[in-house]
Design goal:
Elements (H helix, E strand, L loop, with lengths): L1 E8 L1 H5 L5 H8 L3 E10 L12 E9 L4 H7 L4 H4 E5 L7 H12 L7 H27 L4 H22 L5 H23 L5 H23 L6 H19 L8 H23 L4 H21 L2 H15 L3 H22 L29 H30 L4 H29 E3 L1 H4 L2 H12 L3 E6 L4 E3 H6 L1 H15 L3 H7 L5 E10 L2 E8 L6 H10 L5 H5 L3 H5 L22 H11 L3 E7 L3 E9 L5 E8 L2 E6 L3 E8 L4 E3 L2 E6 L2 E7 H5 L8 E7 L4 E5 L1 E8 L14 E6 L5 E5 L4
Helix pairs in contact: 6-7, 6-9, 7-8, 8-9, 8-10, 9-10, 11-12, 11-14, 12-13, 13-14, 15-16, 18-20, 20-25
Length: 748
């Protein structure tokens, strides 16, 4: 009977420290197998599993064992993504074959930008590490520790490259994958054989790392590298690997050294096992003592004095039960023996003359990347912020020179130079801000799995669409909106998307839809999370608001539908009748609103019953430096974030009307409610005749100030929790003259 076994495993398996490759070995014991690896990126033992770690493979198993036995073998990983299919008539059906081919082609589209950037950064580090490790290994080709280190580097590079190749073929990457696979195999044999690598093997590995550098550079530059010599090197590496195995038999060596090597190649792997165990029984101890005596006598009789001295050191360390010292001397012995074999080998292959022209370009780094610690970027941003404050002081000083000290010539010259300084400052500011910006795809890439998991738990079908992942945002903000976004997606699936039965009755497609869309709008980034579910029931919101004592029936009747919907952001508010682990227990939307307001973000909700809901988050581009509108109320100066202001204009007081007890103004065919900040903050207004209005981006609200002074670039610092302040005050900034200004978040 033939079976097709599909492995589609991810993070959950690796979190349980399971290596799925062992299951392939187990399946081979059941019968004949054909294995095809589709995607493979397995974490190192010390590495934390992530969503990028996958193992996708297809196995065709021909066996006379029953299917139940196969399922029993795979029991612990079946639910993680393993399927067992019987092949009709012992062969794959046309449909099964097409499905497999389709899966292999999946992802052949463009590699996600963040994944590609991470691959390039990590590959540069691995290649640099390999060069250093191989230089050390050339001095000690028998060092098991160095061989392990080099093996891990090749293994990681192979896995990373395989993941990128899973999105589509690329000749340079294919060559990198083949080189790392071959190198990994040779190093594995060296580890298992216990005798180390030959000098020539290390040389070939160094040449291959040079070619890996060339291939990686060609991949980065979008050209194809000639790889003919790569396959010649791989063939030679394979041949030298076989000769390395034969080295233990003493072929091509003088008879005395051949005799010693035949004995040593049996004992050294056993000694290494002792190093890995760290403890032995009395019976094993007796065996090792006799083995050391045999080696000691043999080296003495054959006249290998240097090796004899090393074995004597081994005997002393073993007698003192000092396994650490014993293992150090063992590696010294293995290295010396390896060097002796290399120097005495009677047949030495002539190296092929390299007919290629000598190209010095490969010795020059062409990397486009430089890794910088995040705290250094933050420190640089703080310095830029201080320079912005200093720039504002210089403008004040120019006015002072002209008005107070009456030095107009100096004032004009200084003012001309300040304009140049300002231009340089703006360039520096833009560059540093760009250093902090990362694409939102780094966050969005986590959500497909979240949607799949929630859909499975809630027994719903949901499709996730993502747009605008390339939109960039300050790294700090991206990290802080992760939790709010999870709340929104969870609420969309749990509260919004209907069950399969409900959607069928409503005439909707059985599969619900959630769309995450990001785009830049002015000085802000907007992220929308929209679903095509049941929408928010406004009547239910009203009922809950009355039950919680938030508003009376009369107050709710005077509120617009948009205002009523905004009540869902009130702490503890939920329209869910029964709290569950998924429903958020009434804290989800509150978390979204409060988190965004902490850094000057805003959140809006648009909903239509039985048509869906869209939650719109408006976020500042960066937290580092913000454009602040300085306004005056009475004799006090305040700041308002410029990104929250859509329009500024003056009107006379007689344009303000009263409607249902509210002061409003007609603007752009809309009725805008006005809020006088002088009254809100308890400050006497000094505006006569006309007032200045700041209108929000949505043209729904206006605030009244006495005067708009100017716009500045400022570093806004949070106010410590120990200092009591109004909810409308989000932070403070310092002006050029040293005065402190409160920043108000009054336009929501």
């Amino acid at each position: 009977m033939k079976y097709l076994i599909k492995f589609r495993l991810g993070k959950s398996v690796f979190e349980r420290a399971i290596d799925p490759r062992f299951y392939l070995e187990d399946l081979r014991e059941l019968g004949n197998t054909e294995v095809e690896i589709i995607k493979e990126k397995i974490p190192e033992p010390e590495e934390e599993p992530t969503d990028e770690h996958v193992f996708h493979a297809d196995v065709i198993l021909e066996t006379d064992r029953p299917k139940e036995e196969i399922l029993e073998l795979l029991e612990f990983i079946l639910e993680d993504g393993v399927e067992v299919e019987e092949l009709e008539g012992g062969e794959q059906s046309k449909e099964q074959e097409e499905t497999r081919e389709e899966e292999k082609k999946q992802g052949a589209s463009e590699v996600p930008e963040s994944l590609l950037e991470n691959y390039k950064l990590e590959t540069e580090e691995i290649l640099s590490r390999l060069s250093s490790s191989l230089e050390e290994l050339a001095q000690a080709p028998g060092s098991l520790e160095l061989i392990n280190e080099v093996f891990r580097s090749f293994h990681t590079l192979k896995g990373n490259t395989g993941l990128i190749l899973s999105y589509g073929e690329e000749p340079n990457l294919k060559a990198i994958f083949e080189i790392t696979h071959k190198a990994e195999s040779v190093l594995q044999k060296a580890r298992d054989g216990g005798i180390g690598l030959s000098s020539r093997q290390v040389e070939i590995l160094q040449e291959l790392v040079d070619r890996l550098d060339d291939l990686f550079l060609a991949f980065s530059e979008g050209r194809e590298e000639d790889v003919e010599d790569v396959y010649e090197l791989l063939e030679e590496l394979g041949q030298s690997s076989e000769k390395s195995k034969d080295m233990g038999k003493g072929e091509g060596l003088p008879s005395d050294l051949s005799a010693l090597l035949n004995v040593a190649s049996q004992y050294i792997p056993l000694f290494r096992e002792l190093c890995s165990k760290g403890e032995i029984s009395e019976e094993e101890a007796d065996f090792f003592r006799r083995a050391l005596i045999t080696l000691y006598k043999l080296t003495k009789e054959l006249g290998f004095d240097q090796l004899n001295e090393k074995i004597k050191n081994l005997q002393n360390a073993f007698g003192n039960i000092d396994f650490k010292e014993f293992c150090e001397h063992l590696e010294e012995l293995a290295n010396d023996l390896q060097k002796l074999v290399e120097s005495k080998r009677e047949k030495k292959e002539e190296k092929k003359e390299d007919k290629k022209s000598f190209d010095t370009a490969k010795y020059i780094s062409k990397s486009n990347y430089l890794r910088v610690e995040e705290n250094l970027v933050k420190e640089l941003m703080d310095i830029v912020g201080e320079l912005s404050v200093f720039k504002e002081w210089m403008y004040l000083f120019v006015d002072k020179l002209q008005k107070t000290y009456s030095v107009p010539e100096a004032s004009k010259e200084l003012k001309d130079n300040i304009h140049r300084f300002r231009s340089l400052m703006e360039g520096l500011q833009r560059t540093v801000l760009e250093m902090r910006m990362i694409p939102l795809s780094t966050l969005f890439e986590r959500f497909p799995k979240l949607v799949r998991d929630l859909s499975r738990v809630l027994n719903k079908k949901v499709k996730l669409n993502i747009e605008g992942g390339e939109t960039k945002l300050d790294k700090v903000i991206v990290e802080r909106i992760a939790e709010p976004m999870i709340h929104l997606i969870r609420n969309s699936i749990d509260h919004g998307i209907e069950t399969l039965e409900e959607r069928e009755k409503l005439g909707k497609p059985p599969e619900g839809s959630i769309t995450i869309k990001a785009y830049q709008e002015g000085g802000s980034v907007v992220i929308e999370v929209a679903d095509d579910g049941r929408g928010i029931d406004v009547d239910k919101v009203k009922k809950k608001a009355i039950e919680k004592g938030l508003h009376t029936q009369e107050e709710l009747e005077n509120m617009s539908e948009e205002e009523i919907v905004q009540l869902i952001f009130h702490p503890g508010f939920s329209t869910k009748d029964q709290a569950t682990e998924l429903s958020g227990r009434g804290v989800g939307m509150d978390v979204v609103a409060s988190t965004l307001r902490e850094f000057g973000g805003e959140v809006f909700v648009e909903t239509k019953k039985m048509a869906g809901t869209t939650v719109k988050m408006v976020l500042p581009l960066t937290l580092a430096i913000r454009k602040i509108l300085l306004v005056r109320i009475g004799d006090v100066i305040f700041g308002v974030p410029a990104e929250s202001v859509g329009e500024v204009f003056k009107i006379t007081r007689d344009k303000v009307k009263t409607l249902k007890g509210l002061r409003v103004v007609y603007h752009r065919d809309r009725v805008l409610e006005l809020e006088f900040l002088s009254e809100k903050l308890g400050i006497n207004s000094t505006a006569n005749g006309s007032i200045t209005l700041l209108i929000d981006n949505e043209l729904t609200q206006g605030i009244v100030v006495d005067e708009v002074i100017s716009t500045i670039d400022a570093v806004v610092k949070p106010i410590p929790d120990v200092i009591p302040t109004s909810d409308d005050i989000s932070g403070v900034t310092i002006l050029g003259d040293g005065s402190i200004v409160y920043v108000l978040e009054v336009l929501k």
